[in-house]
Amino acid sequence: MGTEMTIDELARRAGVTSRNVRAYQERGLLPAPVVRGRVGYYGDAHFARLQHIAQLTQRGFSLAAVRELFAAWENGWGLAEVLGFEEALAAPWQDEPDVILDADSLVGTFGGGADTIARAVELGLLTDEGDGQYRVASSQLFAAGAALIEVGMPLAAVLEEGAQLQVDMARVAQRFVALFMDHVWRPYMERGMPPEELPAVTRALERLRPVAGMAVQSWLAATMDRHVAEVTAETLVPFGLVDQRPTGSE
Questions:
Q1: Are the C-beta atoms of 217 and 94 separated by less than 8 Å?
Q2: Residue range 7-90, CATH number
Q3: Tens-digit pLDDT profile for residues 78-127
Q4: What are the residue ranges spanned by the domains of the chain?
Q5: C-alpha closest to that of 146 among 120, 174, 179, 170
Q6: CA separation (Å) from 71 to 27, 54, 64, 192?
Q7: Model confidence pTM above 0.70
Q8: Torsion angle defined by CA atoms of residues 168, 173, 178 and 180, in that order, rounded to the nearest 10 degrees
Q9: ∠ CA(137), CA(91), CA(207), 5° rounding?
């Protein structure tokens, strides 16, 4: 027999409120508990479902879209296909190694003190694990920040740039998710969500990951080239270090 939990125990384990659990049940996202006497008992399947709901909604999918997916599963579609789609939705968009550092290591790398660590936690760049330990949200962002500090950028400026990047990337991510929802998922729903088409929808979602990354990297590189050229002209031409005359002119 698996784990049995009351609604409060399930909510605490899943990191949600009991009110959330009841709301998910009312929306058809979470199966009803097994009732014995006057107490409802939840199991590991309920916990797994709550984890999936959290992962999917964090990636921008509405509760209605998540409910449609679960309904398809419960209506007897091919379990392998539905699980493949659910895994594609819930999988992290970028796999990075887990990095946990103490406050002294963070200060040694970036400088600053408790205030700057608190700001990094506020921005989601670090997660306070307790006992003076902090989990790094992204090892690549951590390395990028360390590199900027190393070449002389002020820590405060690096942190605020991180905050602005979150805003910019949120807009980009929302547009890519909207592309998938508008041109793949919603048309699929309008066709009645035929089970035989689900593998193709899954492949479309899986391809979105590298395509989004390639598009952002390519446009960033091209835009950086253009802006660096503009800055070069503005800063070096007045000193005669760069010839601004068109090629071929005398």
A1: no
A2: 1.10.1660.10
A3: 555 665 666 666 566 566 667 888 888 888 878 777 888 888 888 888 88
A4: 7-90, 100-239
A5: 120
A6: 11, 17, 10, 12
A7: no
A8: 150
A9: 115
